[in-house]
Predict the structure.
Amino acid sequence: MDILNKEQGSNIICGRNPVFEAVRSGREIDRLLVAHNVSGGSVTAIIAKCKAKGVLIKEVSPQKLDYYCGGANHQGVAVMLSSHEYSTPEEILALAEERGEKPFIVICDEIEDPHNLGAVIRTAEACRAHGIIIPKRRSASLNATVAKSASGALEYMKVARVTNISSTIDYLKENGVWVFGADMDGENYTQVDFDLPCALVIGNEGKGIGALTAKKCDRIISLPMYGKINSLNASVAAGILMYEVVRKRSMQ
């Protein structure tokens, strides 16, 4: 059965047969939830299919699964469905080519707050970016909370979910995209020329961008901080940088 859990903001399918058919049908699945100590039979087959498809699998307590499923008979398994279909990096680049524009991409490196991700998507659409890239793990996914925070922008924005951010950056660079990572101790963002195919990397709310991701970037850029704190909210920083890209491109 399909259940909408209002607090989680995700469509839930629970029960072994419905979950198995949902996975087999090719529906866009955010994650598989499996209760502790549940295994064997169709559960093993469900887990195997999800692993083959690269679906995130999370083990939870039976009580938590009861909560997610609203008390329905879940038989130890449930899947959360995405609120929006994902695109691919290839489709994002194809959109830029179709528009006759230099690629403008935002890479969210482990942004876990769905409100932040939704706000980034909303600003990216306002700035006419071609797409957002997020990792499959340790990231907010396209659930209803993200969709609501994006205020309708998700319907117009391509979002790709990838297994490995580093290899995706390599792919973008091979296709002529310059990658700028937002982190401390970088160049002042106002001194950078963004009038070229570019991707902005915005890091995790607490940790910033990962060390390996930073090494993959062509340049590290920073927002000057004049107060006592040393960082901004991820979506605020992303918004400032995105509008700088727009400003620099409009000046040409």
User: Anything to note?
Assistant: Residues 211 and 243 are 26 Å apart (CA to CA). The longest helix spans residues 234-250. Residues 2-81 form a domain with the 60s Ribosomal Protein L30; Chain: A; fold (CATH 3.30.1330.30).
